[in-house]
Amino acid sequence: MFTRLVTKSLRVRRERLLISIIAVMLGAAMVTSLMTISLDIREQMGKELRSYGANLVVLPGEGEYINQFNATHNSIIGSVSFLYFKAGVNAKKIDFAGADLEAARKMNPWWHIEGALPGQQELLPGINAAKKPWA
């Protein structure tokens, strides 16, 4: 009896059945997409913020340099120390930055370096500095 009532109701009201099936499918799709977004948002935001570069720059107050600090807070993903200075090249003052390039590459995966990383007494010029005739 019950099955006969259900089948007759489904045959008579096909439009309502179709609308209810579409509504359930839309609801399931919305729940799935919102769950995907909410579970992945922290990782995506971290990647986007890291692509902008340094979020915090620490400079010395009185002295000439800052001792290496340890990134112990769990919100800090990593740190790279840079040493900025000016040097003379052919009677011109040029800005230089020294860094641990292995750590800097891990923090900045978008860097494109052709060839091998420089050694202790070598330097890595940026694309604009490499194009200038220094000799």
Automatic annotation (TrEMBL):
Ranges annotated as spanning the membrane: 17-41
Swiss-Prot/TrEMBL keywords: Membrane, Transmembrane, Transmembrane helix
Taxonomy, superkingdom: Archaea
The name this protein goes by in its record: ABC transporter permease
